[in-house]
Specification:
With 256 residues, the protein is mainly α. It is 65% helix and 3% strand.
């Protein structure tokens, strides 16, 4: 693949740093991640040679080599003897990596990546709700009930409401004891919690409808109904996202 003249020019452009970063290797890595995700360095092509990268970023060879090593760990590139540092196709990227996921979400105009995020979250949280309904102690059940009741009083304050919303989901996840699934969900959510395309509309009626879903989840967990809790979580996450995403394209990736 031969980059266009514009792409080639962007590939050699100096970064738009307002001040020189303290951690140069991290800053160079972040800039190269964004350029790879944007297609400035397309899959199957080589990154500019080490001396060019040093000049572009005004850094030493040591910094460039450290940045390339980090890019390898993220699955974005591979170093080939005699061919240079080649950019990998997106199928090899570590999509749970904070920089890679963040850059991908920022770059994509559509909602496919956010639909995939919701599908992943829905799968994991449904399973954790199932487990939580089996193992939740009275203290956890009381905590969930308190959060749901408090959210009923916060529907006019979407900022406070969403803080309680996240606490509710995290309480369910903690109750399941699945630290790996909880870690994945929290990592995914951290990339989109302040993204307008993910958060969507915030009017009162939507908070009211959302909390009906929370209450149903709480009731199924309090009743120690694993299948009911899993179904309630699945339905809540799906319906809440469908409302937030609006009518932008068909949500085919959400269908099961």
């Amino acid at each position: 693949m031969t980059p266009s003249p514009e792409t080639a020019l962007n590939a050699l452009a100096a970064p738009a740093w307002t001040r020189r970063p303290t951690n140069l290797a991290r800053a160079v890595t972040a800039e190269l991640v964004e350029r790879i995700v944007r297609g400035v360095h397309p899959a199957g092509t080589a990154l500019p040679p080490e001396p060019i990268l040093c000049e572009t970023f005004s850094v030493s060879r040591t910094v460039v080599r450290e940045a390339v090593k980090i890019l390898q760990e993220k699955g974005l590139v591979q170093v080939r003897q005699g061919a240079g540092t080649m950019v990998n196709p997106p199928s090899r990227w570590d999509m749970l990596d904070e920089l890679v996921l963040g850059a991908t979400i920022a770059e994509e105009d559509g909602l496919d990546i956010l639909d995939d995020l919701v599908v992943t979250r829905r799968l994991l949280e449904s399973d954790m709700a199932n487990v939580a309904a089996r193992v939740a102690d009275p203290r956890t059940v009381d905590r969930l009930r308190t959060l749901v009741d408090e959210m009923d009083e916060l529907v006019d304050d979407h900022v406070a409401y969403h803080e309680h919303d996240r606490t509710f989901h995290d309480t369910v996840m903690q109750a399941s004891g699945n630290r790996i699934a909880r870690g994945v969900v929290r990592a995914l959510e951290s990339q989109v919690v302040n993204t307008a395309r993910y958060m969507g509309r915030t009017e009162r009626s939507l908070c009211v409808a959302s909390n009906r879903g929370h209450r149903h989840i709480y009731e199924r967990i309090a009743a120690h109904d694993p299948n009911g809790a899993a179904e309630a979580m699945f339905t809540h996450i799906t319906e809440a996202w469908l409302v937030r995403r609006g009518g932008s394209g068909k949500p085919t990736r959400l269908r099961r």
